[in-house]
Design goal:
Length: 181
């Protein structure tokens, strides 16, 4: 699942809350300080991806005439350009690798700022953070799937992408999230 800007703070809060409830770390700072640091790191990661996508879109737009003439699949070309730019910048696109790296960055930053201490191996804490990230995404994917299922069973058929569809989806998605806490 791709991170969206509104996810950054909630993901950070979930990671920090779960860490604080575990017996893996000793918290040496206030939770809001830990949340701010984790949120900043998550947002920086997202900004890197958006910058890569923006550059890829720029290059794609510059060659739009050729793409149309050759009848090339624009999505595939975009993905190839994005992959190349990410490789040049050393940015991981694989979500599994990327979130593993992000978990490590969060752990390192929390430790370097003396916000936490731990008496277990570093990998244990990093893996715990990765599990928090995974459970966050599982939670949202389940809510998303349930909202889609409800729309499919709607009395009248809605056209995906229409304003009405998007409004109803947003309402159902929010209801699903609220049900799950």
């Amino acid at each position: 699942m791709k991170l969206k800007p509104q996810h950054a703070q909630f993901l950070a809060e979930r990671i920090i809350l779960e860490l604080s409830r575990s017996n893996l770390v000793q918290i040496n700072a206030t939770l809001p300080n830990l949340n701010r640091l984790a949120t900043t790191l998550i947002k920086e990661d997202m900004q890197q991806e958006y910058a890569i996508e923006s550059k890829a879109r720029e290059l794609l737009d510059a060659h739009q005439d050729t793409i149309e003439e050759d009848e090339v699949n624009e999505k595939q070309v975009f993905a190839m350009i994005k992959k190349q730019i990410a490789k040049e910048r050393g940015f991981l696109l694989s979500y599994k690798e990327r979130y593993s790296q992000l978990a490590h960055e969060i752990l390192d930053a929390l430790f370097e700022e003396s916000y936490i201490d731990f008496n277990v191996p570093e990998n244990v804490v990093k893996n715990f953070i990765i599990e928090s990230i995974d459970s966050y995404f599982d939670f949202h994917e389940h809510a998303y799937d349930n909202a889609i299922e409800k729309i499919k069973n709607y009395k009248r058929k809605l056209i995906p992408g229409s304003e009405e569809y998007e409004l109803i989806f947003a309402k159902l998605y929010e209801e699903e999230l609220n049900k799950r806490g």
